Amino acid sequence: MNTRGIINTSAVATGAQATGVVEGSMVTLAIDGRVVTARPGATVLETCREAGVHIPTLCHDPRLEPYGACRLCIVEIEGMRGYPTSCTTVVAQDMAVTTTSETLRALRSDLVELLLSDHKVECLTCEASGGCGLQDLAYEFGIETSRFEGAKHVSEVDDPNPLIARDPAKCISCGRCVRICDEVQGCHVWGHTKRGFDALPDTPSSVSLLDAGCEFCGQCVSTCPTGALTDRVGRFRGRRWEVTWTETTCGYCGVGCAIEFATKGGQIVGARAPLDKGPNYGNLCAKGRYGWSFAQHPDRLTTPLVRRDGELTPATWDEALSLVAQKLAAIRDEHTGSAVAGLASAKCTNEENYLFQKLLRAGIGTHNIDHCARL
Amino acid sequence: MAGLAASFGSGAMTNSIDDLGQADVVLVIGSNTTEAHPIIGIELKKAARSGTRIYVVDPRRIRLADHAEKWFPVDPGANIALLNAVMSVILNAGLADEEFIASRTESFEPLRELLVGYDLEKAAETCGISVDDIRELAMAYGSAERASIVYAMGVTQHASGTNQVRVLANLAMMTGNIGRPGTGVNPLRGQNNVQGACDLACLPNCLPGYQPLSAGSLERVCELWEMEPELPSVPGLTLVEMMEAATAGELKAMYIMGENPVIADPDQAHVLEALEALDLLVVQDIFMTETAALADVVLPAASFLEKRGTFTNTDRRIRSVWPVVDSPGEALTDLEIVMRLSKLLGVDADYSTAADVMDEMSAVTPQYGGVSYRRLETEGDLRWPCPDESHPGTEILHAETFTRGLGAFVAVDFEPAPDTVTPQRPLVMTTGRHLWNFHTDTMTSRSSGLCELNAQSYVEINTVDADGLGICDGDRVEVTSKHGSVETHARVMRRKGPKPGVVFMPFHFADAPANRITGTDLDPVAKIPSLKVTSVSVRKIG
Amino acid sequence: MIAPDTSTPRAAYEVRVCAGSACVANGSLQIAQRFEEAIARNGLAGSVRVIKTGCHGLCARGPVVVVGPDGVFYPAVDLDAADRIIVSVLGDREPVEPLLFRESPGADSIARYADVPFNARQQRIVLRNCGVIDPESLDSAFAAGDYVALSTALATMTPEQVIEMVRDSGLRGRGGAGFSTGMKWQLARAAEGDLKYLCCNADEGDPGAFMDRAVLEGDPHAVLEGMALAAYAIGASEGYVYVRAEYPLAVKRLRKAIADAEARGLLGKDIMGSGFSYSVSIREGAGAFVCGEETALIASVEGRRGMPRPRPPFPTTSGLWNRPTCINNVETLANIPWIVANGAEAYAAIGTGNSKGTKVFALTGHVHYTGLVEVPMGLTVREMVHEIGGGSSSERPIKAVQIGGPSGGCLPASLFDTHIDYDALASVGAVVGSGGLVAVDKSTCMVEFARYFLAFTQDESCGKCVPCRIGTKRMLEIVTRITEGHGQPGDIETLERLGNLVRSTSLCALGGTAANPVLTTLKYFREEYEEHISEKKCRAHACGALSTYAVIPEKCKGCGVCKKNCPVNAISSVIKEQYTIDPDTCVKCGICEAKCPFDAIIRV
Fold first, then answer.
1. Looking at the structure, do residues B30 and B112 belong to the same domain, yes or no?
2. How far is B185 from chain A, CA to nearest CA, in Å?
3. Domain CATH code at residue C432
4. CB atoms < 10 A from the CB of A155, how many?
5. Could you tell me which chains touch chain A, where touching means 3 or more CB pairs under 8 A?
6. How far apart are the first and last CA of chain A?
7. Residue C349 in this model has a pLDDT that exceeds 90
8. How confident is the model at residue B404 (pLDDT cuts 50, 70, 90)?
């Protein structure tokens, strides 16, 4: 995994704590009194997570540059003023970090309450329910209703695209959509618009995603911590806690991305990528993320077919396979193996392709084997 | 791949996707990376953000050009003229890595002779890139500490495809850009398991692991297969040759597993004729494709979502595939089908799981020698060559020596593509992929949501050419080559898209299959058809 | 070393017409033209010269004209007055007595500008040339001594010596945070980088503040000279002036100043033959308040949306395009040439303990003399309000001052003996800030006053962090409902809780200080909040929803003007008797109060 987005260690030299960070060697620091070693250049948040210390956050995604907007990951660090955000603070030798205290808990809880005061709470039907960062934090802090009621954003957005559902009333302005589109995808479809309370990630001039030049990689959906951006495909077909995730390898282009599919009742209802596995480290493209429902398409072939009187008609496997074997053998025997050829498939597995060529070479006696590598 | 194999000894990405970002300069040639390989596109865009300079050589202004230092709108088919000119500038500027050339390679002298007095003006005229731009590209690549080359079908799908690859290899070797992170010659494979299918010898000219059809190899493999060594030692037929042999009546039966040559292969009329001439056509697929519709027997197969196995990706990474859902109806995995058929044809194929096949595969295939399901499950993916159990896999090829020992230079010069423009067909058509569609669109067109984004064929035409032909964006047009015509919509491209004189068609769509009108001129070595240069005329209709 | 060319002959007699933005808005350019035409007509162009200067400071009495070597001051000059001054200038050059400044009608006239009470306590370092020189003339700047310090420093001082001198002077950043300028330079000098930037932050955004504008308009070369000195000190070779596009005159003069300085080799390559190179470009901001925050400023200069990012890394380590970047404010930079020319000790001799030198304030509100003021650090609020500002402009006493703009704090009259310096103000919850100073009398409601500033910061929040985006909004909603008479028990506690949250957890200084106006008014004027909430009463009668109009029986003559003008027929009377206002019908439009010829209607 590459170490993107790490602020260089010299940055800390101007902070309050820097003492003797040696490039390349490990850094030791205290987290809640416990001595921990960390990579130089790692952030306090990364170090805490590796050490199994829970710090809440909503705007962090390991694919993105540190941002520091949600303020939930604030900690106390000896010698530093106020409450630095752990996601943007780089570890330093002998740093002493406090991750939980009465004050921190109160501040974090109030921040969550503020977010909830401008959130369309409809967890009953929200696609994000069960996988929503805000929902989890409301639960963690025991916030049943927000004391800070006031104006709210509204849901109105007219975007008829077939893949990505947008609900600004659930947006927490963490900027993850904007950043993944800029920093990872390089597409700049999303941007921060307006100022003050009205500030909101949006497309330029609020045009539809299609008009904004969206590539529909769904990366923004994958990083959105709430239900502000959700997949249209698979909607209402499985709650987060009902689905089973299965990891496999994507079957489209040659990149071979690590991909996980969600299934419920034998049907695929969604896809995502594990953050820690290459070559894609959490990223997917439009085809990988949204191109799976073909598997359940009614056009799928479900039974062997044999041409009888010019028509392809259903047959049993035994009928079909014996017919093929018998005819191939006959042609092989009559014209030698060179009268038979096989096209293998760049879509099939190594094992299948291996067996296929073995069948032609060992069973028919021909090297007439090819596939679309040339195309 | 034949080109790289000849130069280096193995035909695969020399480096890894992960180390592209370490390059100072990446030359992207004939690869619409962000659409055809979006995740590698991400790596390139990220690299560009952090200072890597990307140079795009392509007849179209592709999206990656927005992130590139510069776009070089080369004329289709003229890569060799450009690259030789680039190498000439590098050589004459003293930027060649003479030490690398001396210690790691052979046969440079004929190339040196070709390059020293190379006529830049003439090359510029041939490839459509000015001498100044050629110099800029040469100085950028030649003076970079780490320079990488990324290419795809825009280089290989030419009558001169093998030579183009060898010229790229020349360029990398001449500047010592091989064997280190951020360097290399990196072909991007178009489909998920092209690399694996090649590795495991779904090719007419080798045995698994690119073992030659020599007596020794044949004997060794046949022994492992527990059969008499009675296989021919001459290569079999390539795909396009198969179609010719079928038309000629020499080929009687074809067994097609998961391929759709009616749409994917060049000169559709010829393919149809060939397939219809067969005595037996067996097609094994997940949908009733245009090819399956012609078959005598159609076998319903499982998709990649329904099977256990492995894929080998473009950077030689072997990853596990797991079943996510059950196959519909009676459909079976290709493994099961081929296994049952093998048994019926007397082949030893008694495997109880896919892991058993892998065990045999790794015994037969030297590069996969150390690969097993147990290791894949505990260690994650492995990158070949991984010759034995204790080998960790290989990130970068040719680090110390080339697979073939010394890297082989070859002096080749530009030759015009066979299908050159004529007054009747004044435009060059090139083909490729769209971001939202895959190959012959069988899967993408049946994936809800995705299928709505880009459902119809089109031809991209530059605004200059469109104006001359009186074509407006969205007009119905007829694209005609010497092989036939298709009707489609015009997309008139102002800033993006093909350079003047070039039109582009995606080959996904059955409503106007671009390959109906591409030719079957083959690369003499790799037998890859020249899909990227077809002379056409475009006419507004209706 | 090439010394600046100061040989341009000075005109014998100068007429300085203020061409600062405020005077220009009041027609000063037409007045200058009237002078010029008269001088030309009389063939005196050689001996009398009209100079269009920068701001003189006393904007309340503009357009300002100052004449002759003694500096005879004519306030509020119009074209008629100009004609009379011309007669004097072309004739005996005696002051035109009736046009001279008077503190009040009938008081004795004060002839010299320097003698005006407004100026008495001032000490001009930053504004040394404002109102004196022609800001569009490099020669005029030379004559006043601009670029001498740069020339000396390049010839005789090492960068380290310049840094040492500035550090020893005790100068602290004048943009708001008050960080030691010398220390900042030291960090920037020590930072590793092949290319460093020295930028000038001229994104002055506090409502009512215009000190940076005045300097840029009045003496742009002082800022450029300060930038060049700073760049020399830290080793920067490029820089930007980030200035708001709403300052067109400042931009125009700055642009000309840069071009003139480059043409004379005072900026650009190999400055004055010293081998040191530094070039300056202008970046015009689109007027987002937050872009005055240095990390947001960097984002904006880089072409991105102006949004702050957490520090560290500080810009001195990683700023513009990740290069070490030092950003100093206009006023800070304008101090530098003076310090280099006069020495650290001279500067450190001015001011108090940790607050050295002078500070420019924009004095506004309910005082007699509003305008631009430069005073030594350490004056008391009272001296500022009463001696310089001339006290309340109404008969109502001054009740409070807001110091430091929307990020600042609000101090009550009981604290007017507080010294205006960094430490003393901090100890009472206010800040020096960028130097806005608003004095208000009893007609100002402190809840409404706090609401005004909070509404400004909420509107200007970039929206990045939660406490600033939502927290200040919720605070604003609460303060607003209090002023509208819908305050609820518990509101004050919620305001304090949110205020503390916003202050503790905001990402940048904009958010970190946004709650200050509310928190300080809660501290010093809590009873006003309480009255609004529990008694639904605004003692200043400023909150429309909480005040009503009433007729004072003793003053009412029964003329009926109020009734005739009332748009909702809320006023009635017994025939020819006194009038009364029905509070239920009244919409509080205030027409009756305005129309009553006997001042018999008041807000209660």
1. yes
2. 16
3. 3.10.20.600
4. 14
5. B, C
6. 32
7. yes
8. confident
Question: What are the angstrom distances between the C-alpha of B344 and each of A326, A353, B222, B258, B473?
Answer: 8, 18, 19, 21, 56
Q: In angstroms, how far is CA A114 from the centroid of its own chain?
A: 27
Q: CB within 8 A of C102, min separation 6: which ones?
A: C108, C109, C110
**Which residues, including other chains, have CB under 8 Å from residue A41's CB and lie 6 or more apart?**
A3, A6, A7, A8, A9, A90, A91
Quote the crossing angle between the two packed helices A350-358 and B334-344, to the nearest 10°.
20
Cβ pairs A/B, distance under 8 A? 480
Q: Which residues of C touch A72 (CB under 8 A)?
A: 466
pLDDT (0 to 100) of residue A374: 53
Predicted complex ipTM: 0.92
Dihedral sign from CA coordinates of C542, C544, C545, C547: positive
Cα dist from B482 to A241, B426, B461, whole Å? 58, 12, 19
Residue A195 lies in a domain: yes
- Asked if A312's CB is within 8 angstroms of B295's CB, the reply is yes
CB atoms within 10 A of CB C515: 29
Judgement on whether residues A168 and A289 belong to the same structural domain of the protein: yes
Measured between alpha carbons, how far is C482 from C475 in angstroms, rounded to an integer? Answer: 11
CA-nearest residue of chain C to A105? C501
Element (H, E) at C479: helix C472-483
Structure tokens at C169: 């002077």
The answer to whether the Cβ–Cβ distance between B299 and A320 falls below 8 Å is yes
Asked, for residue A138, whether it belongs to a domain, the answer is no
What residues of chain A lie within 8 A of the CB of C305, using their CB? Answer: 191-192
Instruction: Work out whether strand C601-603 and strand C549-551 pair parallel, antiparallel, or are unpaired.
Output: antiparallel
Place of tokens 């079999």: B236
Which pLDDT does position A6 carry in this prediction? 35
Confirm whether C214 is domain-assigned: yes
In a domain, A346, yes or no: yes
**Cβ partners under 8 Å of residue C220, min gap 6:** C135, C250, C253, C254, C256, C257
Report how far apart, in Å, the C-alpha atoms of B422 and of each of B52, B425, C111 are. 41, 5, 93
Mean pLDDT value across residues B453-473: 92
- Expressed as residue numbers, the domain containing B259 is 237-300
Say whether both A290 and A339 belong to one domain.
no
Closest chain A residue to the Cα of C497, Cα to Cα:
A110
String of DSSP letters for B296-349 = SEEEEB--GGG--EEEE-TTSEEEEE---SPPSTT-B-HHHHHHHHHHHTT---
Which two three-digit tokens encode residue A263? Answer: 């299934």
Q: Could you tell me the CA-to-CA distances from C62 to C17, C19, C22, C106, C153 in Å, in that order?
A: 10, 10, 7, 20, 38
- Residues B88 and B6 placed together within one structural domain of the fold: yes
Q: Which of A261, A296, A331 is the last residue of a domain?
A: A296
Residue numbers of the domain that contains C504 = 446-535
Total number of domains in chain C: 5
In terms of domains, do A289 and A149 share one? Answer: yes
B49 and B177, same domain (yes or no):
yes
Q: Say what angle helices A133-140 and A102-117 make with each other, to 10 degrees.
A: 130
Residue span of the structural domain in which A359 resides = 305-374
Q: How far is CA A289 from CA A262, B13, B182, B432, B448, in A?
A: 11, 25, 29, 21, 12
pLDDT tens profile C499-545:
999 999 999 999 999 999 999 999 999 999 999 999 999 999 888 88
| Per-residue tokens: C48 | 């009398």
Q: Is pLDDT of A122 > 60?
A: yes
**In the predicted model, what is the mean pLDDT of residues A353-367?**
94
CB contact under 8 A, B196 and A349: yes
pLDDT above 90 as % of chain C: 75
Residue, of C346 and B531, whose pLDDT is higher? C346
Q: For residue C137, is it within any domain?
A: no
B137 with B267, same domain: the answer is no
Same domain, B19 and B108: yes
Q: Are residues C323 and C378 in the same domain?
A: no
Residue C227 belongs to domain with CATH number? 3.40.50.11540
Number of domains into which chain B is organized: 4
